[in-house]
Amino acid sequence: MKSLLALTTLLATTTQAHYIFQQFTSGGAKHPAWKYVRKNSNPAWLQNGPVTDLSSTDLRCNVGGQVSNGTETVAMKAGDEFTFTLDTAVYHAGPVSLYMSKAPGAVKDYDGSGQWFKIYDWGPSGNSWPMRISYTSNIPRCIPDGEYLLRIQQLGLHNPGAPPQFYISCAQVKVTNGGNANPSPTALIPGAFKSTDPGYNVNIYSGSMANYQVPGPAVFKC
């Protein structure tokens, strides 16, 4: 009985120590959880668990996120505002980034194996990190029309010496009224993040974060 109680407590503690981006807001409407965000295939008790393997395709859209699995695609205009909301506020210090990858056809059939470009970073302000329950940005006005995976990533750097934790989700969006830009630089995922990246292996408790570099390619700007 004691061992069962200990296991139950451990699982509860593990779950509470994590978080997941599960809701998407567009057009001023906050949509139901997982309506436009791909739901990972982890068991319920690990639904909000991180990815830590830099060589895994799970880095794209989380575990099992290479398939749509019934996720709907939301229509948006280039320049529109959107928000990702978590089940609970981020409380592991680290940066947050937004990426996009254009599907060759319908995004519901896209596994994210193509090129990704970064559209925004939230890094540290001084030694304070952007630990929130929601993150808001805009679809770049100049990107071509089409269907995209819109990926949000929070990198937990709270445990120096252990692999940093990637908290990831992807929304499916159809962009209209766009431009003709060719976003760059781009990177493949996995491949965009390396264990030698200064922003990946940094000890956030040692010294100033004033010169911190968020891992991944530079942010694309129209």
From TrEMBL:
Main location, first listed in the record: secreted
Database matches in Pfam families: AA9 (PF03443)
GO cellular component: extracellular region
Reactions performed catalytically: [(1->4)-beta-D-glucosyl]n+m + reduced acceptor + O2 = 4-dehydro-beta-D-glucosyl-[(1->4)-beta-D-glucosyl]n-1 + [(1->4)-beta-D-glucosyl]m + acceptor + H2O
Origin species: Triangularia setosa
Protein name as it appears in the record: lytic cellulose monooxygenase (C4-dehydrogenating)
Highest taxon in the source lineage: Eukaryota
Cross-referenced InterPro entries: AA9, AA9_LPMO
Family, similarity comment: Belongs to the polysaccharide monooxygenase AA9 family.
EC number: 1.14.99.56
Keyword Hydrolase among record annotations: yes
Alphabetical UniProt keywords: Carbohydrate metabolism, Cellulose degradation, Copper, Disulfide bond, Hydrolase, Metal-binding, Monooxygenase, Oxidoreductase, Polysaccharide degradation, Secreted, Signal
EC class name: oxidoreductase
Cofactor(s) needed for function: Cu(2+)
Domain Auxiliary Activity family 9 catalytic residue range list: 18-208
Compartments it resides in: Secreted
GO molecular-function terms, A-Z: hydrolase activity; metal ion binding; monooxygenase activity
Signal peptide residues on this chain, from the entry's feature table: 1-17
BP terms from Gene Ontology: cellulose catabolic process
